[in-house]
From TrEMBL:
InterPro entries: DnaG_primase (IPR050219), Primase_DnaG_arc (IPR020607), TOPRIM_DnaG/twinkle (IPR034154). RNA polymerase that catalyzes the synthesis of short RNA molecules used as primers for DNA polymerase during DNA replication. Also part of the exosome, which is a complex involved in RNA degradation. Acts as a poly(A)-binding protein that enhances the interaction between heteropolymeric, adenine-rich transcripts and the exosome. Forms a ternary complex with MCM helicase and DNA. Component of the archaeal exosome complex. The lineage of its organism: Archaea, Methanobacteriati, Methanobacteriota, candidate division MSBL1. It catalyses: ssDNA + n NTP = ssDNA/pppN(pN)n-1 hybrid + (n-1) diphosphate. GO terms for biological process: DNA replication, synthesis of primer. Signal peptide: none annotated. GO terms for cellular component: cytoplasm; DNA-directed RNA polymerase complex; exosome (RNase complex); primosome complex. It comes from the Archaea. Keywords: DNA replication, DNA-directed RNA polymerase, Exosome, Magnesium, Metal-binding, Nucleotidyltransferase, Primosome, Transcription, Transferase. This is DNA primase DnaG. HAMAP family: DNA_primase_DnaG_arc.
Length: 370
């Protein structure tokens, strides 16, 4: 049998405005819920799973209490079904707890979109070539091995001129990536972020590319404090960027995610969950945690089911109580990674979620205190 045609035919281009602070995952959830509830045969979630539409891209910026952004949905369906999806997207009236409005600007033929991108990008590349000829880069000094000092930090030869920069931790990681042809890279040089890093990243697309261990977690936490990152990429669990092959490095960079979607290593997450359980011990309270395991909502245990039902984009729940079958099923439906309690009372463990208690065995234990 021949391969199915997976080529994108159309791009649905839309804008969104919300009265309040919303994040990309919230918008995606709202779109999925809107289309699934109105047109069963055009449910975005199901079509995404079956490869009929591509990844829903959302870019949201918040200012003065209002969130605005763009939405792009690649479709492999015909024009009539694509138009039906676009119309259903405009029925979104709420994202999370915020009133919102989605307006479809146009449905663009994918081939025309590619031609438009090529023309635009070609013009940008010509401008970059001209700028390189006319002006030297400030704060740039060349060192041995093709490395540079950019604003006092070690960098690859194109980092000073590129409109995108990759941030790694140390010199050996810069050298490894250079050997793989990745040159727009610069090193922090330790666990503390130099004050010049935020300035270098201004006006550029910045990606943090860090080790897949606790060390990488700590550096990422520091970067979040001072740099407005666009993307985060991680080496595979337990691996270091300096040891990655070209294939592994490029795969990790290709799999980069927005800061709202990134996660820390499992060891780090389990350690943080243990700390939270210690704080909750004896309180009869529950915490709904965001994608970085920061507190998104705290409530009494008796209100947890209701609060979790209304939540969006949560990664975990930790609470001072007993994990019931009903709560575990709801947590699985909401896409949580972890559900942590004092003990559990389950007939079966739902798929896709890790149930953790003080008494869990086989290395999955999260201590809630002595």
């Amino acid at each position: 049998m021949g391969r199915k045609n997976r080529r994108t035919k159309y791009l649905i281009m839309a804008s969104i405005r919300a009265d309040g602070v919303v994040h990309e995952p919230d918008v995606v959830d709202a779109l999925f819920n809107a289309t699934g509830g109105i047109l069963e045969d055009l449910d975005l979630r199901g079509l995404r799973r079956n490869g009929k539409i591509g990844r829903v891209e959302v870019d949201v910026r918040t200012g003065e209490g209002v969130s605005k952004g763009s939405i792009s949905v690649p479709s492999r369906l015909g024009k009539e079904r694509t138009a039906m999806i676009a119309a259903a997207m405009e029925t979104v009236g709420q994202v999370g707890s915020c009133e919102a409005e989605v307006k479809v600007g146009r449905i663009q033929d994918a081939k025309e979109a590619k031609r438009e991108f090529i023309r635009k990008r070609a013009g940008e590349l010509v401008e970059e070539i001209e700028k390189k000829r006319e002006t030297p880069s400030p704060g740039r000094t060349v060192t041995e091995g093709g490395l540079e000092k950019l604003g006092g930090v070690l960098a690859g030869p194109t980092a000073s001129e590129s409109d995108a920069v990759i941030i790694v931790q140390n010199r050996s990681e810069v050298i490894n990536l250079l050997s793989h042809g990745i040159k727009n890279v610069m090193a922090i040089g330790g666990s503390e972020v130099p004050p010049t890093i935020p300035k270098i990243c201004e006006g550029r697309t910045s990606t943090a590319f860090l080790d897949g261990d606790k060390g990488g977690d700590l550096v990422l936490k520091e970067l979040f404090k001072v740099v407005d990152l666009d993307y985060v990429a991680r080496a595979p669990e337990g691996e270091k960027v300096e040891n990655l092959s070209e294939k592994e490095a490029r795969k990790a960079l290709k799999s980069k995610v927005s800061p709202y979607e990134c996660s820390f290593s499992r060891d780090y997450e389990l350690g943080k969950l243990a700390e939270i359980m210690g704080e909750l011990r004896g309180s009869l309270k529950a915490r709904i945690l965001d994608r970085r395991l920061n507190k998104a909502k705290e409530t009494l245990v008796r209100n947890l089911l209701r609060e979790l039902s209304d939540s969006r984009g949560a990664r975990a729940v930790a609470f001072d109580g007993i994990i019931t079958q009903r709560l575990a099923e709801l947590a699985s439906e909401k896409g949580l990674k972890y559900l942590v309690g004092v003990r559990e009372r389950l007939a079966r463990e739902p798929e896709g979620i890790e149930i953790l208690t003080k008494r869990n065995a086989e290395g999955r234990q999260v201590e809630a205190g002595d």
